[in-house]
């Protein structure tokens, strides 16, 4: 049992923890990848907000602004994780 647990722990810690985003070259100018990623996360956050409003679940959120910021950060982190090197 302990040996199997050690194998699982080694598998997950073998993966890279930090993901590097590389700049994009458009017309010879270098742009940050957050220029594309941040609006995408914002669109997903807005869609989530509209969906919650449509379903009537927004009234259960105590601090809506903090919730929106948290959802935005979660979407941003997920996009960086999925599209990072």
Strand content: 5-15%
What structural class should be given to the helix and strand makeup?
Answer: mainly alpha
Approximate helicity band: 55-70%
Distance between the termini: 33 Å
Low-confidence stretches: none
Number of helices: 3
The largest β sheet comes out as: 2 strands, antiparallel
Order of helices and strands: HEEHH
What can you see in these coordinates?
The chain is built from 3 helices and 2 strands; from the N terminus they run αββαα. It is mainly alpha-helical and 85 residues long. It has one domain (2-83). The protein has a two-stranded antiparallel sheet with strand order 1-2. Helix 2 (34-55) packs across helix 3. The two termini are 33 Å apart.
What's a quick, concise take on this entry?
65% of the residues lie in helices and 7% in strands. With 85 residues, the protein is mostly helical. The protein has one domain.
Which features would summarize this protein structure in a list?
flat, two-stranded antiparallel ribbon, mainly alpha, about 80 residues
Helices and strands in order:
Blueprint (H helix, E strand, L loop, with lengths): L1 H13 L9 E3 L2 E3 L2 H22 L8 H20 L2
Antiparallel strand pairs: 1-2
């Amino acid at each position: 049992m302990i040996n199997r647990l050690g194998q699982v722990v080694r598998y997950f810690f073998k993966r890279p923890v930090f993901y590097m985003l590389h700049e994009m070259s458009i017309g010879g100018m270098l742009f940050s990848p957050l220029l594309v990623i941040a609006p995408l996360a914002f669109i997903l956050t807005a869609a989530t907000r509209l969906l919650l409003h449509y379903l009537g679940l927004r009234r259960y959120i105590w601090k809506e602004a903090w919730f929106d910021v948290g959802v935005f950060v979660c979407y941003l982190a997920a996009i960086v994780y999925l599209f990072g090197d």
